[in-house]
Design brief:
- There is one protein chain.
- By secondary structure, the protein is mostly beta strands.
- Helix content is 0%, strand content 45%.
- It is built from no helices and 23 strands.
- It starts with 5 loop residues before the first strand and ends with a strand.
């Protein structure tokens, strides 16, 4: 496998002994042996791994250790917390925890600690919480602040062809342009697109589906619409009548394997007459108009 098994350390001073270390691999663990240093437990460092190859234990020769705990069943590379064990100046054992909290899209939004493990309601490395108490230090990370609705791109053509000439993020799941061209939409030469011209748009973002199960995404529109969830077309109303408002059927739907956020893309075209689009959805525990600011966000 090409793994390193022997390392010579650089000389600290000319003529001194050049310390080396051996790295010994076995199933589920790696040991580091440093020549010239005591090994009361048979190693200078021991690292253990779970069946997914994630580190679950790291300890040195004097017992300073860390215990990472992972979020199984959500994202295998996300830490819930890490407990570190050491001793203070009196020789007493000190256990500190650093916890991690994520949003529904798997992005870390809070980092708690390091602080004594008791502040996390924990008595062992494998219980308690990722968030601490009122006095625990915490840092926050926010995403897409002040960006409500869907990211948008508009084309001065009726079929999404050529380069888009207008971008924004203010559109949610229902919008009525009437007989107007979207404000600021130009032709590719930079001149305003004349009234009555064909145009098209693509809206992208994410949607939080609160339960596992089957969802449907019908639309109402004056113009053609396609809806994709996680890259899968769930509603094809591209051949809808132009100039009059009609509604689609449920389409093929989307089976959500878990409650979480999924990518959503809505494509729209208008070649004549008034322009309007409404996105709806129904599924376990939800029905009616969709694309509220709490449920659909920009990406």
């Amino acid at each position: 496998m090409g793994r390193v098994v022997y390392v010579n350390e650089p000389l600290a001073r000319a003529g001194e002994y050049r310390r080396h270390r051996n790295i010994v691999y076995s199933t589920g663990e790696t040991r580091v042996l440093i020549a010239g240093r005591s090994r009361p437990n048979g190693y200078n460092r021991l690292v253990q791994y779970d069946v997914l190859g994630r580190m679950i234990y790291d300890v040195d020769a004097v017992g300073r250790a860390s215990y990472p705990v992972w979020r199984d069943g959500i994202e295998s590379d996300q830490l819930k917390w890490t407990d570190t064990v050491s001793r203070d100046s009196t020789g007493s054992v000190v256990v500190m925890r650093t916890g991690h909290v994520y949003d529904p899209e798997g992005r870390e939004t809070q980092t708690w600690g390091p602080a004594p493990r008791t502040e996390f309601a924990a008595t062992s490395y494998n219980n308690g919480n990722a968030s601490g108490g009122p006095g625990t230090p915490v840092s926050y990370t926010a995403y897409d602040q002040e960006l409500d609705g869907l990211a948008t791109r508009f084309w001065p053509t009726g079929d999404l062809s050529g380069p888009p000439t207008l971008h924004g993020y203010s559109v949610t799941g229902s919008v009525d342009w009437g007989t107007s061209i979207p404000g600021g939409l130009n032709k590719t030469d930079g001149t305003p697109l004349p009234a009555g011209s064909a145009w098209s748009a693509r809206f992208t973002g994410s949607i939080y589906l609160s339960n596992a199960g089957q969802y449907y995404f019908p639309v109402g529109a004056s113009g053609g619409v396609r809806v994709y969830i996680d890259g899968v077309m769930v509603t094809d109303y591209w051949a809808a009548p132009q100039g009059s408002y009609t509604t689609s059927g449920n389409g093929v739907g989307f089976t959500a394997p878990a409650a979480k956020r999924y990518s959503v893309t809505v494509e729209y075209k208008n070649t004549s007459g008034p322009a309007k689009i409404d996105l709806f959805w129904s599924g376990p525990g939800v029905s009616g108009p969709g694309a509220s600011r709490e449920s659909v966000t920009t990406v």
